[in-house]
Design goal:
The complex is a heterodimer. Chain A is an all-beta fold. Chain A has no helices and 11 strands. Classes of the chains: A mainly beta, B mainly beta.
């Protein structure tokens, strides 16, 4: 069984461009979370999916951010019109019924 | 409003000794607590967790203690090894149907174990 995977691992983009990240959770996990981590801080919650339903979004998730989980398996996080303040590590985590979340390796975004 | 706090940014310990990492929280609704280890440019790796109905959980060299009245938890690593050097995050969650188990993290503590 593989763990949570994320793609790409690194992304460099210019301000104003759109970017999309992908997360593949552990196969039997029906719950999926996105977090963002900036330097010197702990990860901060962005959004939560249970199966294909997006049930919670943080205030951190501005209208330039959108996330989907169309078939209840993999998820995508898109950032439109990127800004330099979007530079961060984007983390995906998944879990089943018990409360422990398992994280992927993250996607490091740098907006120039 | 920082609901989970790790007040020590760093900790330095000699190999073979005990490492004690501390974490305080303010939200009394948290019912599950976790410790993660993180290397630079990698995602957090789960270490150990504890439910609010317990006050201690042990897994090999790692033990987590929970003091609900003080809203405090700690992670003990015995004996410490150089490979334990990393950033350690404590996290807390509540899974009550509206919070959906999202994790609230502390700021992290950098542990350095010297040979």
């Amino acid at each position: 069984d593989t763990g949570v995977s994320q793609d790409p691992r690194h992304k460099i983009t210019k301000r104003g461009q759109n970017v999309t990240f992908r997360c593949d959770p552990i196969s039997e996990h029906n719950r999926l979370y996105w977090y963002r981590q900036t330097l010197g801080q702990g990860p901060e919650f962005l959004t939560y999916f249970q199966n294909e339903a997006q049930l919670e979004k943080s205030r951190l998730l501005s209208d330039r951010f959108s996330a989907e989980r169309p078939k209840g398996s993999f998820s995508t996080l898109e950032i439109q019109r990127t800004e330099q303040g979007d530079s961060a590590m984007y983390l995906c985590a998944s879990r089943y019924w018990e409360q422990t979340q398992y994280f992927g390796p993250g996607t490091r975004l740098l907006v120039l | 409003d920082q609901q989970v706090k790790q007040n020590s940014p760093s900790l330095s310990v000699q190999e073979g000794r005990i490492s004690i990492l501390n974490c305080d929280y303010t939200n009394s609704m948290f019912d599950y607590f976790l410790w993660y280890k993180k290397y630079p440019a990698e995602g957090p790796t789960f270490l150990i967790s504890i439910s609010s109905i317990k006050d201690k959980n042990e897994d090999g060299r790692f033990t987590v203690f929970l003091n609900k009245s003080a809203k405090h938890l700690s992670l003990h690593i015995v004996p410490s090894q150089p490979g334990d050097s990393a950033v350690y995050f404590c996290a807390a969650s509540e899974d009550d149907g509206t919070s959906y188990g999202k994790l609230t993290f502390g700021q992290g503590t950098i542990l350095t174990v010297h040979p």
